[in-house]
Design goal:
Shape: elongated
Number of helices: 2
Oligomer: single chain
Structural class: mainly alpha
Number of strands: 0
């Protein structure tokens, strides 16, 4: 891939591939091609999620450098 896709566009493409494969009406060669592409997209998405998690952990470190887990709180609906 020459131009890097956004996480969202990669995820959308992966969802389209899953729908096509689940339909089951593709020739074997095309199914394998889509599956291989889907695996690559899945790995790219997982890598980006891992990177985002590391960035969040860095942001949540205290002044002493120790990681301080902070529970995510849903905003209250008004």
């Amino acid at each position: 891939m020459s131009a890097e896709k956004s996480f969202e566009s990669s995820l959308d493409e992966l969802e389209q591939i899953v729908r096509q494969l689940e339909a089951g009406d593709l020739p074997l060669d095309r199914s394998l091609e889509l599956f291989e592409h889907g695996v690559r997209l899945s790995r790219e998405c997982q890598k980006r999620l891992d990177e985002a998690e590391r960035r969040v952990e860095i942001l949540l470190r205290g002044n002493d450098g120790a990681y301080k887990p902070t529970p995510f709180e849903e905003p209250e609906e008004e």
